Amino acid sequence: MAQANTGQGIGRVERLLFTALPLSALCLVLWKLARLELPLSASLSWVPALGIDLAFHIDGLSALMLLMISAVGTAVFLYAGGYMAGHSGQRRLFVLLSLFMLAMIGTVTADHLLVLFLFWEATSVLSFLLVGFDYHKSGSRRSAQQALLITGAGGLALLAGFLLLGQAAGTYRIREIIEVVPQLEQGGRLTAALLLILVGAFTKSAQFPFHFWLPNAMAAPTPVSAYLHSATMVKLGVYLLARLDPAFGEWPLWELLLKGAGSITAAWGMILALRERDLKRILAWSTVATLGTLVTLVGMRGEGASVAVGSLLLAHALYKAPLFFVAGNIDHGTGTRVIDRLGNLRHSMPWTAAVALLAGASMAGMPLSFGYIVKDVIVEAKSAGEVFAFAKAANTIFGAVAVAVAGVAAVRVFWRHPGVNESCEAREGSLSMILPPLALALSGITLGVFPFFAQGLIAGAAGAMVPVPREILLGITLEFGPTLASLALSYAIGLGVYISWDWLHERFDAAVQRIDRLGMAAHFERLLRGIPRAAAASTRFVQSGSLPAYVALAIGTLSLLLALVMALGWSSFAVPALGGIPGPAVLGACALIAAGALASLFQKDRLALLLSAGLVGYGSGVLFLFSGAPDVAYTQFTVETVFVIVAASILLVLRRSGRLSSLPEARWRPAALALAAAFGAVIMLLLFVASTGPFDPALSDYFSETSLPQAFGRNVVNVILVDFRALDTLGEITVVLLSFLAALPLLALRRAGRERKAEAE
Amino acid sequence: MIPLLALTVFVTVTAGVYLALSRDLFRCVVGLAMLGAGANLALYAAGAKGSARPAVIQKGAEVLADAANPLPQALVLTAIVIGFALVCFALVLLLRVMQYAGSDDADRLRLAEPRPDDPLKPPSHSADCLPVYPREDRS
Amino acid sequence: MPAWLPEALIFFSLVFLLLQESFAGERGVTPLLAWGAQALALFCLPFLPGEASLLGGSFLLHPQALLFKAIFLLSALVCTLYAVERPNPDREGRIRGEFLMTLQASLLGAMVLVSAGDLITLLIGLELATLPAVALSAWARRNPQSGEGGLKYVLLAALSSALLLFGFALLIGLSGSLALEAPARPLPLQGLVLALLLAGAGFKLSLPPFHLWAADVYQGAPTPVAIWLSTASKAAGLAFLFQLLQGPLAGALPDMLPLLALLAVLAMSLGNLVAVLQQNLKRFMAYSSISQAGYLLLGLLDGWSDAGLAAMLYYMLVYVIGNLVVFGVILERERDCGATEIEDFRGLIRLRPGLATAMLLGLLSLAGIPPLAGFTGKWFLFAQAAAGGWYWVVLLAAVNSTISLYYYLRIVRQMFIEVDGDLPVRGDGGTRAGRIIAAGTVAICLAGILPWLYEGMRGML
Description:
The complex is a heterotrimer of chains A (761), B (139) and C (461). Chain A is mostly helical and 761 residues long. Helices cover 73% and strands 2% of the residues of chain A. Chain A is built from 29 helices and 2 strands. A two-stranded antiparallel ribbon of chain A has the order 1-2. In chain A, helix 12 runs antiparallel to helix 13 and helix 27 packs across helix 28. Chain B has one domain: Orthogonal Bundle (Helix Hairpins), CATH 1.10.287. Chain C is an all-alpha fold and 461 residues long. Chain C folds into 2 domains: 248 residues, no CATH class; 208 residues, no CATH class. The relative contact order of chain C is 0.09. The interface between B and C is large, with 49 and 51 residues.
């Protein structure tokens, strides 16, 4: 952020250096994959006292994620060089993207819940900074804040869930947890852990009901959207669910929630995609839908579903990222992303059109693309795992909308003639904006033609969820069967949706607007608006600004609390020993105190109030004097006298301003009196309680015995104060001295003010 | 002895809290001082077990014979002095506040506090900040 | 090295400051005398004996006391260094000999408090820490808010001091002893004592319902004093609580856990909720510090354990450093443009990017975002509460952390708003404060990743 004001883009060399980072990661991953060196583990003791280790483990699933992170990362870094050319914040973007990539790598390789959480939250914070990259735009800041609030809150839920899970399993190592949890009883604590973890994963992967932040996060620059919001970060939730699938997979709750939330998200995402006019937002909603499908697949049992998760993860990264790049190119070239204003771009942007076609084909699941193979796998998994026919039907519908969205992104804007608005002059971007998406889209097609390249990778990824044999076969099934029938139906409906897109858009827009008011985004907004309201209400109630109210609040709460504790411990009360009858002097002193206290309640005049209050002090002095504490008594007399003098002199000053009598106030304040009496009664009871205790004379004996021999003093209180406890007394003197030192300048200021006033007059 | 002291403490504490709950700042300070005195009394009462003779070693004796416990007394003494310092400082500060504010009304000590009747501004979508209290006129 | 050396250093520097002020006048006072003594005392701490008992057991030295003294001395040192660099007389009063002397006295009180071996020393330490802090909070004589805040502070201090004395009375009555050591068998009805003594600790820690002074005092007090109140003074409250919970109330905790849990949740929620609306950054930090005190209490919820103690101390230290950074930025901004309203931080990223970055990291650490130190501290505390079985409290704490993220982000957003037109004042900034803030920011980042600090504390206790 500090670099924000450099005002310059960065040079080619620096760009290449940044790009070398994901590229080297990619090479490393490929090399390790090719040599079949998985799984890899590493561990470093971090906080031994709490059993926290920096533990990492790379298995097939991690390797798949790593491959996506580094491959799409390389593309994004290259693309950003062209897309952001000359932008003042380019270096900031590269730094943040690099950090983000490291955080992602950490998240998918961590083998310790806390380590995973640390990197997980780091991705949230970095995505906040990336979404709010154009921080001078108000919309950017709002979107960034919304994204961080939702994923951050989810992260905290995740933390709580991890805590519970770790405590229940007795370990925070993920591999150990996976082994331990299925053997544990499905108790309340594990259920709570499960629910909290699901909240965390659902927020990250934009699942219903936390789905709405993702399209808003499209305020980010395109490279960021392509990287975070399609290929990597939003997949973290799916990754975590897949990672924990062996632990919770047998739970009915797990299956129910995953399938439920996933299906709703998929359906809702598709519907909302039809409603949008902004190309990037259309893609974002379809991403939401895909994430929903992924979550559903994780929730399903069986080998086929696991293979489907792995292949859909890969395929989605390979077609969605290029499509985002396409949207970025169009935005870059024409200045708009609204599909109504776009059309016939194939002439001015032929390469982008090619990319769009390739990626779109994969997304639509056309034969000879990797998307086709994935659809095939999914249909098989669903038909194997689902009992209900409607699940298959739903699958067809989702597929159809995917076809339509692919059509919009790949065909409509490039081939169809624009409607009302002619698109403005478009131009193709630089080479670095064409090559990366082209490479990604082409690999999607390559894998479609030669699926065995991906076989080992996907088998490894699926192996993290269920034991899968290495020799799964991803192939092109062309035999006529339910699969092909379902696909054909998808294409047909998709074509229909594509053609009637505008008509559907209007219908849906009207319908959804009504739903919007009840939707989660609206609830979230209401919640956000509710916070200040609640804050205002509680501020007005608690921090009322009235000092007596503060005193009343403190005293009242405390009396209530004390009374409660006393009531709870009533049985352990002992009857206090009443002791002997006090002598007349003590009796008189107490009468004096009580008289002073009572009299002070009635005084209107401040001086009289002061004097009656003084009676309390002097009465205490007399009491001390006649019950064996002469030193305390003398101190009390002195202090009381000085206090009265100080207070009287202040009253004298006040008299000059005519304020000798109290403020007009109700003579009786019953509420205050009731509170005061309640507190007094509680304290009186306390004294009775206190009098039941024994007296431990050990410490006093020490002073009693050593007073004369060591300190040569006969008055033990004095000896304690000036000999044994000289330090305390020094402190006491310091207290008093300081209060005078602090008070003096205050008085001096007053004098100065008076002099100034006199001069002015 | 204990019931008597407890009753005395009750009266003192009740009067002290009642005064402290007053709007009048001077009464409030006096009330708090009285509450402090009640606390000292309670402290003293809690430690006053055994003899009522002063803790002075008699002529000719080496060791303190039957006498009041000296240690709680030392604590009471400390508490008295500290309470005194606190209350004196409060008085001086009170004087100063009265002089700039021209008021000794505790309810008017609200330079920075929100007014109780301050309506919260309706939240707005466009605003960058959250709704906040409007800045008060302090003229 | 004698166990009393740090206290002696501070005391003598106090006396010398007094002498210098009296004989050489205000201009003649060298601030070096104050911060030099603090730095020296801080330097001495590792060389002190681990265990010591002086003055017939009324002055004790143990590892926990050393850790607290380190926290006190650290925040005093930073406060002093912040305070003496380009002070603003209108908003802060005269920052010279008397000011430094009063700060030293408060520091001395806090240090005595943690080493106290009996109730008398404890009381003196506590009041010696409080009273100068009251005086300091009313230091800005030309700022009416300062006086008003000071008055509220002193009146509520007197109230809490009286409540504390009632607690002491009950304690003495029940145990018959003034020593701060665990009784042979738990006292009857010790929950009552704890409730009363919580009034004293709660006042310093600003726990509800004794937090009501905090907002006005933080806002009105000179900013270095607000720093002192939010860091060392709060730590002193915690130390006071520890002294009692390890001493005469050793067995009281298990019975009172529901109360403490409630208190923690109340403090967190209240502080958070009210902080949302604040417009003044210092006032905002007051509420934030109230909620932070709530988090701190989570460490007590597993009963009483070394792990919990270490977690609380670690969090305290992390919180202190975070507050020193954030308040440092506030102070710098205040000295640049003379105000501390949140909107005065608009566009700080352009005006002083370094400060804005430090503020961002400091606030995120306070919010508990990993990998910053604030997160690690919260993790330890949450783990303690979870170990005690207080899952609902952990959950509410997590919810509160989210709300706090919301309002911390509000400030971050202001800093990142682009300013066009009338640019707020751009200051040149003090180099020393800048260096301290930078060091604190680095510490926040490192302490979150490197766990040696926690390990070391755990090992010491």
